[in-house]
């Protein structure tokens, strides 16, 4: 066992705080994953490894250099380092699947993700500043700013020791409006004053404020007035942080998909009404209204012809649609069933949702070979890819359902979820609408009326506009230029 030597508590807390975050990451296989270098810790050169542009150092090496003890019990990693008081050494426990480290009954939330390789933890070099002797650590002294077109350049100048005349850093974006960069250096009072002056007097339309935190290295916490992109470049003595506005994201292109068509009539009403005829008319009316609102609208087919379900979702990807809306009419054994339903892609939760999905997916008989129908792995992978947009799809379905029920003079069947093939592989917010029941004689008569179909199209349009406004506010940081544009 290594004999422990004294180690300041403040340095200890800093060391432990960088060990764990929301889970220990497996190191990715990258081109620079095997690149070796060294970092000076207490006068000892410790090997580092570079992964995805970030240098890491082994925790086991750090503990050895700092004369501490380190071992693993199951998924728990335990570090014991010398204490400063008569109470003796301090013990810290952290787990590979937790974002919290335990220390004397305290729970510390950890922000920096380490690597787990061959049952060893590796922490970013940029957070080791507090345990490196001060004379060996660069000091951040000056802040210089400049403007290159729409790009703001923050030049951070250091003095003192620096390996290869550079300093290590890590960076992360919490959102399009919040960005943090951590530097392997200390900062002095003059830099803090310059930063405070910049925050008070900056005429930048992009940066709202910048604060500095020295709990882990030197972390600049930047808040923006509008969504921004960032890049950090190493310079001879320090780094340049480049910040520029992100293009505002908007919902501009919508693909409308009238269900069925050609030899596939869809549901049949008691009066002989064909689903394909009703939904094509609603889709064309809706397209006209959405275009009047400024959207670019594409319809999968504007005449009575058949198009495979796979081709419909492929078209959404090919044209890079922002929204996909599939329009249908319903049918049920229960002749009293009526009302409007909005669906998004997810595993069906009820027998009714499974039944509706099975009926709409029956069109697969027209276009898929037998092998494709049995390819369960392909369908599972499609579900996983679509999962990114489940929240947005559910919000789109809710916005449309609310608008239709409010002004459409229809029954409210609610927002539902089911496994529709046509919504698979549509990597955007996507919904399927059931505009009424052709199996209900009264609702069939209603759907046959042009004024009712016009009213449905208007309500769906209102729901889409409401969703687009909310969606743009969220992804663009509540920027009013998008929120008030329609």
Please give a structural write-up:
The protein is 28% helix and 32% strand. By secondary structure, it is of the alpha+beta class. The strands form five sheets. Strands 1-10-11-4-3-2 form a six-stranded mixed beta sheet. Strand 7 (90-95) and strand 8 (100-103) form a beta hairpin. The N and C termini lie far apart (70 Å). Mean pLDDT is 75; it is low at 1-35, 84-88, 368-386 and 479-484.
Key terms:
486 residues; alpha+beta; 6-stranded mixed β-sheet
Number of helices: 12
**How much is the average pLDDT?**
75
Biggest sheet details: 6 strands, mixed
- Class based on secondary structure composition and strand pairing: alpha+beta
Question: What is the molecular shape?
Answer: elongated
- Give the termini separation: 70 Å
Report the sheet-strand fraction: 25-35%
Low-confidence stretches: 1-35, 84-88, 368-386, 479-484
How big is the Rg? 30 Å
Task: Tell me roughly what share of residues is in helical segments.
Answer: 25-40%
Number of strands: 26
> What topology, given as strand order, has the largest sheet?
1-10-11-4-3-2
Topology:
Layout lengths: L8 H9 L7 E2 L9 E6 L2 E8 L2 E5 H7 L3 E5 L2 E6 L8 E6 L4 E4 L2 E4 L5 E3 L2 E5 L14 E10 L2 E9 L9 E7 L2 E6 L2 E2 L1 H13 L5 E7 L4 E7 L3 E8 L2 E8 L7 E6 L16 H18 L3 E4 L9 H10 L4 E8 L9 E6 L5 H11 L8 H4 L2 H11 L3 H18 L4 E7 L11 E8 L3 H7 L2 H26 L4 H4 L3
Parallel strand pairs: 1-10, 12-16, 21-22, 21-23, 23-26, 24-25
Antiparallel strand pairs: 2-3, 3-4, 4-11, 5-6, 6-7, 7-8, 8-9, 10-11, 12-13, 13-20, 14-15, 15-18, 17-18, 19-20, 24-26
